[in-house]
Amino acid sequence: MTASHPLPQYRAQYRADGPVRAGIPEHGRVPRYYAVKTELLWLVDSLGEGAALPSERELAERFSVSRVTLRQAVGELVMEGKLQRRQGSGTYVAPPKLVQPLSLVSYTEGMRRQGVAPARSVITVEHLPADEVLARDLAIGHGDQVVHLERVLLADDERVGLESTYLSVERFPTLLEVLDPTKSLYECLTGKLGVVFGEAEERVETVLATPREALLIGTNPALPMLLLHRVSRDAQGVPVERVRSLYRGDRFSFTARLRPDR
């Protein structure tokens, strides 16, 4: 059911980082919860990062809506990373999303540039035989051994992602001897094993975490995730690694610098 819920004129001000006209169609008829959500966004901006949202009862009275309608609006803002729920405490204005460049920059370097302390919690370190797809991506034989590293990504001790990396054992036979798996693999490859990265192919899509992934990252299985698939190559064009990175959609965004093809 929809209801006409005209917003105050100042709500329609131009915002370059938001939807045009706040997503309100010209006829002004929108679901009640969405009108409340738009109002909440302005309240969030005025409160500032870390501030507590007023109580559910107070907000429902302020917007003249039911608590069910209010919860739907708040729930969407939580899913989008604008608000954070804290068990037994309340709902708070979330910090800005972390921004990771889509470039040959490690997760560690990307976080450090934002003044965030990166870390990793090691889940799996193992040798596996390459299946057909992995063998093709790494330019090795089907069944050849690969190193598989699975690590939870942390930012200021907050779990924000899960990363699985695969590398050829034949190419990097001493990797596990020189690598501290809680630290940057990229820095180990370039600093200790002499790899010079040349390029990478990356694909980004949205997914829902599996139950295991949600448990490892410590998030709601219904929360949208950003999934990145990357194959990195050295300066000679030889594959170095294949990486599957899963990031929390409420905590991450990505940037890329685009240039025209020549």
Automatic annotation (TrEMBL):
The keyword Protein transport does not apply. GO terms for biological process: negative regulation of DNA-templated transcription. SMART domains: HTH_GNTR (SM00345), UTRA (SM00866). Keywords: DNA-binding, Transcription, Transcription regulation. Pfam families: GntR, UTRA. Transmembrane segments: none annotated. SUPFAM superfamilies: Chorismate lyase-like, Winged helix' DNA-binding domain. GO terms for molecular function: DNA binding; DNA-binding transcription factor activity. Residues 30-96 form the HTH gntR-type domain. Signal peptide: none annotated. This is GntR family transcriptional regulator. It comes from Saccharothrix coeruleofusca.
